[in-house]
Amino acid sequence: MVYMMTVDLRSDTVTRPTPGMVEAMMSAKVGDDVFGEDETVNALEQKLADIFGMEAGMFCPSGTMTNQIAIKCFTQPLDELIADQTAHVYRYEGGGIAFNSAVSTRLLNGPRGIITAEMIEPEINAENIHYPHTSLVVLENTVNKGGGSCYKLDDIAPIAALCQTRGLKLHLDGARIFNALTYTGDSAKGYGELFDGISVCLSKGLGAPVGSVLLADKQTLKYARRIRKVMGGGMRQAGFLAAAGIYALDHHIERLKIDHSHAQILATELATLPWVSQVLPVETNIVLFDTLEPADIILQKLEAKGIKANNTDKHRIRFVLHLDVHAEQVEYTVGVLKAL
Fold it and tell me: Keyword RNA-binding, does the record have it (predicted)?
């Protein structure tokens, strides 16, 4: 009898709380967060603000909500934001830019989702009644559709300088920002010096079950809390969830390098296989690769062996490594890939 493992590589959102995290959640001190009285939520918000050198934070149920609130705070109806065409805020947030903020989007086509000041500057609209007013640039780090590609602070600094010169706000979708920091070695506080808003997700690589925090100055967050309420994001005894975020920040950042190592192992093996036509460069915990057969056929073969994954195109598959994928599961996956 051949032993079969279950390996879930669909996303780093599938992780379950560790025993230590559950214990922290169950012992959390809670209050009513809408009244600002949940001390664990307050502690999480301040902890992340301190890490990134920002004034304050606001805990929300999801990264989609923190991103959409930020866009609402940094724009007015009839404005336009600039982002890469792969951006999560554009592709995977349900059309929220248009629905929530009545803002249009100017899309750029950066290599693996990475855009530059030189690409952005000519797309900033002149003041003309025929054009939407350009008011915001949104970056994503790491870039999901870019296979976990990373900006370095040196890449971002010219963009921030351009935004300051031209009077634009700069927001970071930092869904996997700690993966980027682990890879680049950059300073988190350096991000706080460059961005007007930062969304930090706790429920991906960090392994918390729920939640993201929007970081900004206090005045912005005063308005952001109103938008959060309008969007139905005002939670009450949310400290049970915030405690998971605090635990993740204390215990799960350093281990991200393990996920990156596992991604490299899979990428190295995939590059040798005859049914794989291309493996994109791997920097963090995401592996994108192209297949000669349709991706759906490969995914069916993998699922028959207990391995779950997603496709991002007709011939492209994504593997995402996370804390619930251990070394023996990576080894098992390598064996399955070889045998396909």
Answer: no
CA distance 175 to 233: 18
Rg (CA), the chain: 20
Determine the residue type at 278.
Q
Q: What is the mean pLDDT of residues 84-113?
A: 98
Judge whether 59 and 246 are in contact, CB under 8 Å.
no
Instruction: Give residue 2's pLDDT.
Output: 57
Structure-token pair, residue 129: 């009644």
**Closest to 235 (Cα-Cα) out of 32, 18, 22:** 32
Place of tokens 């190295």: 268
CA distance 319 to 267: 9
Q: Is the CB of residue 63 less than 8 Å from the CB of residue 215?
A: no
Nearest-5° Cα angle at 147, 119 to 251: 115
CA distance from start to end of the chain: 19
Q: Is the pLDDT of residue 241 over 90?
A: yes
Q: Judge residue 324's burial from the number of C-beta atoms within 10 Å of its C-beta, 0-12 exposed, 13-18 middle, 19 or more buried.
A: middle
122-133: pLDDT as tens digits: 999 999 999 999
Q: Is 228 exposed, middle or buried (0-12, 13-18, 19+ CB in 10 A)?
A: buried
| Global pTM exceeds 0.85 | yes
Confidence (pLDDT) at 234: 94
CA–CA gap between residue 65 and residue 96 (Å, rounded): 9
C-beta neighbour count of 113 within 10 angstroms = 25
User: What pairs with residue 59 in β-bridges?
Assistant: 213
Helix/strand number for the chain, H first, E second? 14, 13
